[in-house]
């Protein structure tokens, strides 16, 4: 008992020694310090709102002090390698206000060139306004595992010298971060993803946002066998049901060209592909079905065409599928809905799909967003109320601008429908009125049936929908009284263009 206590004390003593004594090798070398000071000299920290605050990371970067203690600098304590990490955050927000900004000093030499002398594993610049091309010199920091620049206004091609970053695991350039304006000098790159980068076989994350690269994706990326995230997107901002990726956030957007190389479909570790807003073309090969770990696939706003291979249905882990804004055509395979049991958002809007909407698609029980609008779908809306337990979230469904024919039967729609957009069918829902069974959709918030030549009266059963908030029934042939529940919506009920309605 006593010896056990003594043993514990000895261990505690050793632990506290380890914690208290300054770790060997933590002290910065003269060379490392100079490299960092040269880097600092290329940047300026502007204090914006509060000139007295002491929050600028560079305030601690003082010559003659141990650089391992400087804000944003990490040293290696175990093997005495020196400075192995720089993580600079160029913006600290106090409340809603930004208190300072780090910007590059113009004409201060090749940006970041001095950093090549450091055995860096990690280089992360957040909200440092670099406003320049990626430094070619960094290609020789072969130790680098993480290279991240967020909100830095980077433009130009990726230097071919980056083929030397053979240990790189994360390559992230996010120009759109924190609302930093996109580079004014776009379009920039023309060389696409340089073939030299295929040597980076340790890559897990390849994420370029609003870099506006032109050129093609080389087939040799098939060597990135650890890759989980492949993102080269030029659409900015977050997407939601109503606000899609803007098709082009960059003036004169360049965008990747050519097709998806076969090599891409060998990367079976991929969980996410996002190539939104490029100029990619060709059809989607059946080998897409091999990427069984995919959770998110975004090919929106490109120039893909042809039939969607049924093999997409093999992507059982897929939660987000965005193919909107392309030229995909022909019928949807019913296997799509049968096997995609995890799908949360499906956007096939603004394509050239035709034929009926498969029942299986409307009955994916996890679905929260389904956009099939602006296509050539025909026939009635299929039954969407097959038994099973539905997502706890509601469904937002947009099938506007197709050739869907009436009558609309709310009793057959998914019972958790929250938003229902069936406006302006080229075929018109015509002559069929709005059935009073609309009241079965008890989660309904938004209903858009405008421009469909709908006749008859507006059912009073709208009064049974507790969450109803917005109704567009404009440009139909509705007649009779406006029921109180609709009248109560005021401006949120659009009834224009129904000359026979009594106000
Ligand atoms: C950097 O600063 C931004 C803006 O203040 C903040 O949102 C972000 O979380 C910070 N990032 C890191 C890594 O500290
Ligand atoms: C629904 O689809 C129509 C036609 O493509 C589009 O104009 C509208 O913005 C979409 N609305 C929502 C909320 O998705
Ligand atoms: C749409 O698809 C049909 C075949 O389903 C094809 O004939 C037509 O050319 C396509 N239109 C466009 C604009 O791609």
Provide an overview of this structure.
With 503 residues, the protein is mainly β. Helices cover 9% and strands 23% of the residues. The protein has a 17-stranded mixed sheet, with no helix packed on it. The longest helix is centred in the first third of the chain and has 19 residues. The structure holds 2-acetamido-2-deoxy-beta-D-glucopyranose (3 copies). One 2-acetamido-2-deoxy-beta-D-glucopyranose binds next to loops. This is Leucine-rich repeat-containing N-terminal plant-type domain-containing protein. Keywords: Leucine-rich repeat, Repeat, Signal. It holds the Pfam family LRR_8.
Point out poorly predicted stretches: 7-25
Termini separation comes to 91 Å
Please compute the radius of gyration using only Cα atoms.
Answer: 29 Å
Helix content: under 10%
Q: Oligomeric status of the shown chains?
A: single chain
Please outline the major beta sheet: 17 strands, mixed
What form results from the Cα inertia axes?
elongated
Keywords: Leucine-rich repeat, Repeat, Signal
Pfam family, one: LRR_8
Protein name: Leucine-rich repeat-containing N-terminal plant-type domain-containing protein
Organism: Riccia fluitans
């Amino acid at each position: 008992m006593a010896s056990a206590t003594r043993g514990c004390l000895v261990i505690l003593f050793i632990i506290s020694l380890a914690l208290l004594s300054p770790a060997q090798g933590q002290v910065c070398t003269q060379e490392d310090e100079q490299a960092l000071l040269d880097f600092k000299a290329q940047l300026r920290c502007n204090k914006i709102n509060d000139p007295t605050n002491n929050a600028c990371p560079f305030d601690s970067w003082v010559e003659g002090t141990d650089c391992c203690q400087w804000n944003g600098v990490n040293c290696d304590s175990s093997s005495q390698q020196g400075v192995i990490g720089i993580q600079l955050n160029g913006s600290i927000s106090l409340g809603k206000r930004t208190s300072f900004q780090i910007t590059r000093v113009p004409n201060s030499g090749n940006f970041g060139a001095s950093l090549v002398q450091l055995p860096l594993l990690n280089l992360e610049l957040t909200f440092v306004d670099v406003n320049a091309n990626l430094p070619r010199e960094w290609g020789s920091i072969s130790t680098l595992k993480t290279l991240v620049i967020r909100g830095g206004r980077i433009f130009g091609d990726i230097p071919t010298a980056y083929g030397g970053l053979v240990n790189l695991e994360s390559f992230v350039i996010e120009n759109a971060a924190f609302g930093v304006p996109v580079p004014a000098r776009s379009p920039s790159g023309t060389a696409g993803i340089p073939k030299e980068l295929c040597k980076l076989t340790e890559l897990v994350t390849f994420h370029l946002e609003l870099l506006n690269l032109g050129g093609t994706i080389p087939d040799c990326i098939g060597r990135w066998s650890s890759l989980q995230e492949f993102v080269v997107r030029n659409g900015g901002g977050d997407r939601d049901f109503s606000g899609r990726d803007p098709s082009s956030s960059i003036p004169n957007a360049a965008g990747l060209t050519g097709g998806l190389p076969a090599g891409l479909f060998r990367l079976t570790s991929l969980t996410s592909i996002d190539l939104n807003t490029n100029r990619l073309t060709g059809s989607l090969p059946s080998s897409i079905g091999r990427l069984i770990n995919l959770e998110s696939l975004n090919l929106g706003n490109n120039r893909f065409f042809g039939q969607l291979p049924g093999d997409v249905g093999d992507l059982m882990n897929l939660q987000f599928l965005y193919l909107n804004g392309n030229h995909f055509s022909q019928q949807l395979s019913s296997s799509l809905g049968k096997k995609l049991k995890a799908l949360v958002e499906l956007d096939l809007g603004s394509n050239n799909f035709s034929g009926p909407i498969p029942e299986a698609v409307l009955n994916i029980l996890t679905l929260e967003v389904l956009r099939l609008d602006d296509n050539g779908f025909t026939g009635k809306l299929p039954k969407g109320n097959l038994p099973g337990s539905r997502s706890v979230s509601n469904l937002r469904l947009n099938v506007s601008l197709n050739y869907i024919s009436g009558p609309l039967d709310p009793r057959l729609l998914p019972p958790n429908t929250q938003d229902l957009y069936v406006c302006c069918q080229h075929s018109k829902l015509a002559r069929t009125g709005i059935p009073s069974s609309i009241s079965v959709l008890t989660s309904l918030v938004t209903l858009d049936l405008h421009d469909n030549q709908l006749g008859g009266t507006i059912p009073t059963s709208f009064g049974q929908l507790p969450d109803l908030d917005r109704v567009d029934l404009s440009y139909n042939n509705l007649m009779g009284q406006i029921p109180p529940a609709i009248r109560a919506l005021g401006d949120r009920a659009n009834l224009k263009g129904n000359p026979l309605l009594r106000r």
